[in-house]
Amino acid sequence: MTRRQPKHRPKLGGMSVSLLNELLNNTLDQGYAEAARRRAGQDPQPPRPGQIVVAVGLLLVGLLCGVGFAQARRSAPESARVKIALIHDIEARTATSNDLERRLDELAAQVARDRDAALTASRQGTAARSRLQRLESQDGLLAVRGPGVEVTVGDAPPKQQTDPVTGQQQTVQPDENGRIADRDLQVVVNALWSAGAEAIAIDGRRMTATTTIREAGGAILVDFFAVTSPYTIEAIGDPDRLLPHFVDSRVGQQYQTYVGAYQIQFDVRRRDQLTLRAAAGTDLRHASTVPEPSAPAGPSGTPSGTPSSAPSGGGAATATPSPSGTANSTPTPGGGS
Amino acid sequence: MIPGVALIVGVVLGLVLQPSVPLWLQPYLPIAVVAALDAVFGGIRARLDGIFDAKVFVVSFVSNVLVAGLVVFLGDQLGVGAQLSTGVVVVLGIRIFGNAAAIRRHMFRA
Q1: Taking CB atoms and an 8 Å limit, are B33 and A68 in contact across chains?
Q2: pTM, whole model, 2 decimals?
Q3: What is the band of A152 on the pLDDT scale with cuts at 50, 70, 90?
C-alpha cells in the first residue's frame, strides 16, 4: 500500500507558510540591520547623542505604558464600581429601613401595652379592649401562630440554550408568561382567603384589609415593600380544610397547569407551625365615642389639682385621650367611669 | 543605564499624574502600548546583536504606535475595528515573542 503524493501542491499553502515564516523569523525591525550596514561603510562614530534620544524615546514608552495601565484600571471597572456602589446604597437603605421597622414594632407594642393597661382599669375599657383585640386579630394587627399551608410561587427558572448564530451557551430569562406578576399573587391570596385562611402573609408581609400587592418597574411591592421571586405565601387556617380547598379550587388547578405550560414554580405544602407577625404601620382612620353607660359621672368628687374643663356631653373619645379627670382619680384616657 | 531610568520614570509619571486621555483616543491606547512594547523589545534585541541605532529605535517606536493606531482607526471606520485590533495584537505579539526569544538566546545562551 503506497501513499500517493498529490500531484499539485497548492500554491496558496506554500505562500501562507512563507508568510508565517517571514512573520515568525524576521521579528527584528529591518531598519537596525540597514543602519548597521550604513554605519559599517562609514567611519565608526561613538553613539553618544543617541543615548539622549533613546532616553527620550523610552520615557515616552514608559509614559504610554503607565497611562495605558492607569486608564485600563480606571475605565474597565467603572461599571462594576457603579454597580457595587449601588448595591452598597441598597444594602444601607435596607438596613435603615429594617431598623426603623423594628423600632416601629417596638413602639407599636409599647403603645398597645400602655393602651391595654389604661383600658383594663375600667370595666367599660375592658369591654372595649376585648372588642379591639377581636377586630385587630381579624385585620392582621396581631401576631398569630398556628398550623396552615405554605404556597411557594416563583418565576420560571432561566433556561440554558445554544445561540443559533455563535453556538455559545447562553442564559435566557423567562418571558412574560413565565414571570409571576402582581395579579398572580393577588389571585392566589384571594383564593387562599376563600379557601378559609384566617391570616396570610407574603414573604413575611402580613395581609390586612388594605394591603396592596402591586407591580412597579418590574418589582412586586407588597404594602410598598419589594418582594422577590420565589414568593412564599403563608396562610394560617385548618390545614385539613384549607389545603384541599385551595388545591382543588379553580385557581389552584389553573396554576398547576401553568407549572407544566410555563415552568413556573408552584408548590403547596402543609405546615404544622406557622408564625405570622403583625402588620406594620396602620394609620388611625376611624374613631368614635364610647357610648355613655348609664349615669354620667357627677361633678361631685372633683379631685384636687386639676380644675378640669369637663366635656359637655360627658362621653370621651376612645381614640383621642381627652383630659377627663372630673370624676375618677384614676387616669383613664378611655372615658369616665 | 540612563534609558532604563528614563523608562521607569516614564511609567511612574504615567501612574502618578494619570493624565486624562481624551475619549476618542481611548480605544487606541492599548494598541499603542503593545506597539511601544514591540519597539522596546526590538531595541533591546538590536542592542544585544550589536546593531542598535538610536534613530531607528525612536522612529520605529513612533511609527509603530501611529500605524497601529491608524490601522485600528481605519478598521473602526470600516466596521472591523475589533477584528483588526485583534490582528494587530497578534502580529505584534508574535514579534514580541520572537524578539524575547532572541534576547533570551543572547543572555542565557539557551
Answers
A1: yes
A2: 0.47
A3: very high
Number of domains in chain A: 2
**Interface with chain A: mutation pick from B8, B9, B11, B48, highest number of A CBs within 10 Å:** B11
Which chain B residues contact residue A62 at CB under 8 A? 6-14
d(CA A105, CA A115): 15
Chain A residues contacting B, CB < 8 Å?
Answer: 23-25, 27-29, 31-36, 39, 47, 49-72, 74-75
Inside any domain, residue B14: no
Binned at pLDDT 50, 70 and 90, residue A151 comes out as very high
Cα–Cα distance measured from residue A154 to residue A156, given in angstroms and rounded to the nearest whole number: 7
Nearest CA in chain A to B36: A61
Range of the domain at B98: 29-108
Burial class (CB in 10 A: 0-12, 13-18, 19+), A171: exposed
Residue pairs between chains A and B whose CB atoms are closer than 8 Å: 159
d(CA A37, CA A31): 10
Using the Cβ of B59 and the Cβ atoms of chain A, whether some distance falls under 8 Å is answered with: yes
For residues A195 and A121, membership in a common domain is answered with: no
B9, B57, B91 ranked by CB distance to A59: nearest: B9
CB contact under 8 A, B91 and A59: no
Q: How far is A191 from A242, CA to CA, in rounded Å?
A: 10
Q: What letter represents residue A272's amino acid?
A: D
Q: Which one is predicted more confidently, B42 or A48?
A: B42
Instruction: State whether B54 and A50 contact (CB < 8 Å).
Output: yes
Question: What 8-state DSSP symbol labels residue A5?
Answer: P
Number of domains into which chain B is organized: 1
ipTM of the complex model? 0.72
User: If you average pLDDT over each of A190-194, A279-283, A301-305, which comes out highest?
Assistant: A190-194
- Tell me the residue range of the domain where A150 lies: 146-158+173-280
Q: What is the pLDDT of residues A89-131, one digit of tens each?
A: 999 999 998 899 889 888 888 988 898 888 888 888 888 888 8
Strand order in the sheet with A231-236: A205-206, A199-202, A231-236, A144-154, A265-276
Q: Contact B53/A29, CB-based, under 8 Å?
A: no
Assign A223 to helix, strand or coil: coil
Q: What b-and-e string marks burial along A137-148, b requiring 16 or more CB atoms within 10 Å of the CB?
A: eebbbbebebeb
A151 with A276, same domain? Answer: yes
Substitution target from B12, B17, B33 for chain A, most A beta carbons within 10 A: B33
